[in-house]
Amino acid sequence: MADFGTITTDYNKGTDASPDWTGTTIALSGTSGANEFRMALSTGSQTTTTPSASWPYMPLPASGASAVDRLYAFSTNTSGIQVATYDGTNAKARVLRKNFSNNGNPISAMQFSFFADSTHANPSGGTQPPGSHNDTFTNGTSGETSSKSAIKCSMYGSGATAGGTQETPSAGTVGTSPGATTGTSGAVTTTAGNWLNANGAWQDLAGWNDYIIGVAIPAASTAFFWYYTLIIYLVASMTTQAGGWQIVDTVQYSYA
């Protein structure tokens, strides 16, 4: 037995009721504009061929918080597709999923969160401007996000149960719509066969300060999908920087 041969991210290019995951796999460790997700606003000038270096900036709200309402996936620097069911709300369930190959042997529940980069340094809640190996999103702000990450998430079950049954959500609303301050310190455990907190509150993702952990250890040698959805906030006192911010999502687990 061993680690998974591949873990990728799929995105829905169809509708919530009739999802289309065909050809949407994004590999780990994006570089040079390829294999990356890009945030945007519906008012932005971005297209599905805009290169990473020319990606338009998102203006911050004059006060308070507003949700990022567009998400694009790029397999190459200039070849992208809009994630059709991401709109910055909790109205759609089938948005993103982690895709695990059938050759892994996990021996711990899986944890999921976001970090500034691959050093996986924990965020410093509320600190703006961010320090080394931190970023403006996972740090959040001391005011608008109450030092919680600006990235909110709900996840469905554990992807696969200990017995190897795939857990797949139905279309529809996901839990209680989170605000900019939503989040719980430490880990929030998923609900078997349901969204987080029995289709209730979401969690903020701030490294291993605030994160999500699966309720079960998925069965060995079983391919499965772990479904999740995000709402990402922009807030007035976020720090901006030339070139924008790049953040990484991370799945952590033990294997044998």
Automatic annotation (TrEMBL):
It comes from the Bacteria. Keywords: Membrane, Transmembrane, Transmembrane helix. The keyword Transmembrane helix applies. The keyword Membrane applies. Residues 170-186 have a biased composition (Low complexity). The chain crosses the membrane at residues 211-236. Residues 119-147, 161-186 are annotated as: Disordered. This is Uncharacterized protein.
